[in-house]
Write a structure and sequence with these properties.
By secondary structure, the protein is an alpha+beta fold. The protein is built from 13 helices and 17 strands. Strands 1, 2, 3, 4, 5, 6, 7, 8 and 9 form a 9-stranded antiparallel sheet that branches. A 6-stranded antiparallel β-barrel has the order 10-11-12-15-14-13. Strand 3 and strand 4 form a beta hairpin. Helix 2 runs antiparallel to helix 13, helix 10 runs antiparallel to helix 11 and helix 11 runs antiparallel to helix 12. 33% of the residues are buried.
Length: 542
């Protein structure tokens, strides 16, 4: 009857493999950098994501206010101006988007954002502002002795033309507000509480083309050394291309706090067709989520350059998610820039921002330390750029995992692969290595466990004459090799020696037997002491 084979105790190789596997897995676990769960900036290994990340802080929200008055005609011959104080006016606020294109405060937007057309849409906004005042006047002076009217009823009468009126508008004024992608969350309770410099008034419209022509404008604010976005070549845009618009869609205004209203949105759109307006303006027809409030916003290609300016939809009802919208091609803006002789080279802040972010997304030895240093310089020179703090914090945390060294200045940041890509390849290589190690370990264990059992099952008693002796083993009678009879094992029962003489009782000697392998072993042995061959089957086991 055979005893159970203990693979691990009888095979030290398995123990060695287990030790090696444990050490290897421990090395894999400890060699990985302790990255944060969420990396600011998203998937920066994607060049398009990086390009949009770089451009987003330079995109601003533009709020234009148009003062207006409404003259209402009451039959038979009374005309009343609202507001009734001649010095007052109703302020109609419209929202759009723009982007800095120079470091000296020049912003590219759609013309209708800063110079709204005096059309029915603007008049209806004025009706809404004046409706309550008109209703109060009618209930006091016109509806005597009859049922009073509500503001909603007055609004319906003004809109339908039942109540005749004339709208008058004064010159609009626009204000520009930096987004939370630049200032970070301000926790301001209202726009008047925003940090100094977060909102400024437009002091000049440098160049514009009306909305019925190219609907493009370049306006100026009194700011210097601003971030900026480059204007790209719209002739390289083709149908099926994907673009990214950065804007402030009205449907996304779910809160009234400045932080909510000044958080920009990113939407991917695709190019449907290239067309030309009746006025000869080159247009880019796009499909996707483009809404009111995105007007004037930049459409970025995969290099992060402006190739279009959000302009208009087919009509007011269809201009929305999944509707058809049109961009003014950037070639119109390029012509304006050229005519104004604007310097569109990156300023100091934009250069430092680009260096810091590209170091942040790189994989060079010490790139985290370099990014940390660049972001620290950015924060010191531009304290209002608080949104860069999250990138500094993350880079600082990663820099602690290794020495802070500066990448070689010969390498261009834009040509560096991303940090996420390097980490991903390292993780893949280590994972594959771990899997292979486990496979080798399992294979070795199985081979070690199955080999002796298979031999035992297949073992059959054969004559020693049919076996070939191993080179290092001795056969009985071969005096040149050590005699197996000299190997004595303890046993509680007296046995006979090979010579046939009885062995004295109490001397713990055993009689030896010749096994099929040709070597002599004691009864009860499980393996040959010379060659390691398993014990032959007994008649009871056969």
């Amino acid at each position: 009857m055979h005893q159970k084979n203990n693979t691990f105790t009888n095979n030290p190789i398995c123990l060695y493999l287990l030790i090696i596997a444990g050490i290897s897995l421990a090395f894999i676990m400890t060699s990985q950098p302790a990255l944060a769960d969420s990396m600011p900036g998203g998937n920066v290994k994607d060049p398009t994501v990086r390009a949009v990340d770089l451009a987003q802080p330079a995109v601003v929200r533009i709020i234009t206010t148009v003062p207006g008055q409404l003259s209402v005609h009451f039959p038979p011959s009374t005309d009343v101006n609202f507001p009734q104080k001649s010095t007052d006016s109703y302020e109609i606020s419209l929202s759009g988007t723009g982007a800095f294109i120079t470091s000296q405060g020049d912003i590219l937007t759609a013309d209708h954002v800063v110079n709204p057309p005096r059309n029915q849409q603007l008049s209806e906004a004025l009706y809404g502002k004046a409706a309550q005042d008109v209703a109060d006047y009618m209930n006091k002076n016109v509806q005597k002795g009859s049922d009073s009217v509500t503001a909603d009823q007055v609004l319906q009468q003004l809109t339908s033309g039942q109540l005749k009126s004339t709208s008058t508008f004064q010159k609009p004024g626009s204000s520009v507000f930096l987004s939370t992608s630049y200032t970070g969350l301000t926790n301001a309770s209202n726009f008047q509480s925003l940090p100094a410099g977060a909102g400024v008034n437009v002091d000049q419209i440098k160049k514009e083309s009306p909305s019925d022509q190219q609907d493009t404008a370049i306006v100026h604010v009194p700011m210097t050394d601003t971030l900026s976005v480059s204007i790209g070549d719209s002739t390289n845009v083709h149908p099926q291309d994907k673009l990214t618009i950065v804007g402030f869609p009205g449907n996304a205004d779910v809160g009234k706090s400045p932080d909510s209203l000044l958080t920009s949105s990113l939407n991917q759109i695709y190019v449907s067709s290239l067309k030309t307006s009746d006025a000869g303006a080159p247009l880019i027809q796009v499909g996707g989520n483009v809404e009111h409030g995105d007007s004037g916003g930049p459409a970025l290609d995969n290099q992060g350059t402006i190739v279009g300016i959000v302009s208009f939809g087919v009509d007011n009802n269809s201009n929305g998610p999944n509707g058809t919208s049109f961009l003014q091609a950037s070639s119109s803006a390029q012509a304006m820039v050229k005519s104004l002789n604007l310097d569109t080279k990156s300023g100091k802040q934009q250069t430092l921002w680009g260096q810091a972010f590209n170091a942040y997304a790189a994989t060079d030895a010490g790139h985290w330390g370099q990014a940390q240093q660049n972001f620290a310089s950015l924060q010191k020179g531009y304290p209002l750029f608080k949104a860069s703090q999250q990138f500094y914090d993350y880079a600082q945390k990663q820099a602690k995992n290794g020495p802070i060294t500066t990448p070689s200045p010969q390498k261009k940041p834009s040509s560096q692969p991303s940090a996420q890509a390097s980490t991903s390849w390292q993780a893949i290589a280590l994972t594959v290595g771990s899997i292979l190690l486990v496979i080798v370990l399992v294979g070795a264990v199985l081979a070690s466990a199955l080999r002796p059992r298979n031999k035992i099952k297949k073992q059959q008693p054969v004559a020693s004459a049919n076996r070939k002796p191993l080179a290092a083993t001795a056969t009985p009678g071969d005096k040149s090799q050590p005699d197996p009879a000299n190997r004595v094992a303890a046993s509680p029962s007296p046995q006979k020696t090979p010579g046939g003489a009885p062995s004295p009782v109490g001397q713990n000697t055993l009689s030896l037997k010749i096994w099929p392998c040709g070597h002599m072993n004691r009864p009860g042995a499980r393996f040959c002491t010379i060659c390691g061959e398993p014990a032959p089957l007994s008649p009871d086991d056969a």
